[in-house]
Amino acid sequence: MHIHILGICGTFMGGLAALAREAGHVVTGCDAGVYPPMSDQLRALGIELVEGFGADQMAIRPDVWVVGNVVSRARLPDGSPKFPLMEAILEAGARYTSGPQWLAEHVLQGRHVLAVAGTHGKTTTTSMLAWILEQAGRQPGFLVGGVPMNFGVSARLGAGPAFVIEADEYDTAFFDKRSKFVHYRPRTAVLNNLEFDHADIFDDLAAIERQFHHLVRTVPGTGRVVANGLEESLARVLHQGCWSEVRSFGAAVSDFVAEGEPGAFDVRVAGQLAGRVQWELGGVHNQLNALAAIAAADHLGVPVAQAAEALAGFRNVRRRMELRGTAGGVRVYDDFAHHPTAIRTTLDGLRRQLGAQGGRILAVFEPRSNTMKLGAMKAQLPWSLEPADLAFCHAGGLGWDARGALAPMGARAQVADDIQALVRQVRAAARPGDHVVCMSNGGFGGVHGLLLQALAAPAA
């Protein structure tokens, strides 16, 4: 089968492309605004990429067009379609489907699917779970919304029956407004956490809770739902109905409990000591992610002690507090955080790792997600940036006043309207021993390399 993927450089669609190629299908695709790591991974696989969404791609004549949710029926100011290729597909009556639907029919059918859902931590927890199963000899398949450093790729078919997938609540396609994860039919479902996000498609938290309950409805009676016991929103989801075994984690009274600091902690199951995790990761959020992964692996019969031992070798995911380099005595990190809670959690985790004498934290971020661009969470920004000593915001292209939103932080916050100005601000403020954390769910204009270059240059 020849598939042509519209929006192939997104993390999900890029992973799907890799799986399809591994399964022996002919894969081509198109996108705009390509940036690593997905573009690098696709080129390494020899997948032909077309820039843009021109209607001339109809000449490719694949067996099916696989449409990513970046594609819409939107029009440009001059009235022309933003995605001419999609208009041509519709006009021709050609065969098309969504990415999640194609994946469900051609990859997930007949597998033991372990789906990891939640507002935060999906990518990391999915990677942890895949690594645990790999170390247990299960040879799992996986599809992750990032690149786990233990594997070096975001997706693979795997030789075993288990398939681990990052289960996103964002909508499937312009013609299918259900959440992606309802297509996956998991036997093991992880509900990591749940709060309001995606203000562009959900009206309120209740609307997202309804989609999570749709996921719970698809888990069979012999399946397992692993739920964070600290989240009232997830309690409401389960209260709507659950027909599977439920295992909780996180709360003081849970099936899976952690005792100790995030870097070294015991895992207790039903009150009994079952394993110990000792690793390089910090932050309570990673401790909770680990419990979720251990509880999910337990459903496949992986002993808790073995799962905990496997996590000692877990190397995290690219763009999750990834150290990009050191220049002028300043360490520069790249992180995917873009929701206020994720920003706060990331900075809190670094603060705990550094301790009282660990140097200053400079938070550099851009409100790039659709929710942040709408300004729906701008009031939470001062709270989210509180653990940082200084904050620098890239406000280019926003339709709301970033300076006003950050005014409660006073002199601790600076705003720049372009990347070069942002780099100059950070360069002027940084000093040896500082930790600069760049946070965005996009390429951020290559700010990491620009900062390292500026910090390495002699002071003006």
Protein traits:
23 strands; UDP-N-acetylmuramoyl-L-alanine:D-glutamate ligase; Rossmann fold; 32% helix; single chain; Protein-Tyrosine Phosphatase, Chain A; six-stranded mixed sheet; alpha/beta; seven-stranded mixed sheet; 460 residues; globular; 15 helices; 3 domains
Question: Which helices and strands occur, and which strands form pairs?
Answer:
Blueprint: E1 2-6, H1 11-22, E2 26-31, H2 38-44, E3 48-51, E4 64-67, H3 84-92, E5 96-98, H4 99-108, E6 112-117, H5 122-135, E7 141-143, E8 155-156, E9 162-166, E10 171-173, E11 176-179, E12 188-191, H6 205-217, E13 224-228, H7 232-239, E14 245-249, E15 256-261, E16 264-269, E17 272-278, H8 284-299, H9 304-311, E18 322-327, E19 330-335, H10 340-354, E20 361-365, H11 370-373, H12 381-384, E21 390-394, H13 402-405, E22 413-416, H14 419-429, E23 435-439, H15 447-456
Parallel strand pairs: 1-2, 1-4, 2-3, 4-5, 6-9, 6-12, 7-9, 12-13, 13-14, 19-23, 20-21, 20-23, 21-22
Antiparallel strand pairs: 7-8, 10-11, 15-16, 16-17, 18-19
Helix pairs in contact: 1-2, 5-8, 5-9, 6-7, 8-9, 14-15
